Amino acid sequence: MRRSARLVSLAGGVLAIAIAALLLLPLGKQAARDANLFSNDLCIVAPATPYDPASGRAMLAPRPIPADARCPVCGMYPARFSRWAAQSIFKDGAAHYFDSPLDLFVFLQ
């Protein structure tokens, strides 16, 4: 008798949750409405930092990591842990800064 009472209360709880979900989340409308909320906020790849001739460094020489540079793979700030940071310098002198050498290899694949 106790077991059947538990099953009935469990079934009632599941049914109440299902009904609440159907009433609060209309099918198809929520996903379509939320699809455009973050279209402009998501950075797929961080832009490369352009070469600054006024820095006094050679165009293809390693350079210090700017505090605002973002890793193009994971979005973290490489300057926070500069000991682990990596960089990729392109022919035009632009550079990407990576949070770790692993992210550099993931980016180059």
Structure, explained:
By secondary structure, the protein is mainly α. It folds into two domains: 33 residues; 56 residues, no CATH class. 34% of the residues lie in helices and 7% in strands. The protein has a two-stranded antiparallel sheet. The protein starts with a helix and ends with a helix. The model has no long low-confidence stretch (mean pLDDT 82).
Helical residue percent band: 25-40%
Termini, distance in Å?
A: 63 Å
Please give the domain count.
2
Oligomer: single chain
In DSSP terms (H or I, runs of 4 or more residues), the helix count works out at 3
Shape verdict: rod-shaped
Q: What amount of the residues lies in strands? A: 5-15%
Tally of strands: 2
Taking the sheet with the most strands, its summary is: 2 strands, antiparallel
Uncertain stretches:
none
Topology as a string of helices (H) and strands (E):
HHEEH
Strand line-up of the largest beta sheet: 1-2
Radius of gyration: 26 Å
The SS-based structural class is mainly alpha
For the residues shown, what is the average pLDDT?
Answer: 82
Write the layout of secondary structure elements.
Elements: H1 2-24, H2 29-34, E1 86-89, E2 95-98, H3 101-108
Antiparallel strand pairs: 1-2
Features:
34% helix; rod-shaped; 109 residues; 2 strands; 2 domains; mainly alpha
Quick take:
About 35% of the residues lie in helices and about 5% in strands. The protein is mainly α and about 110 residues long.
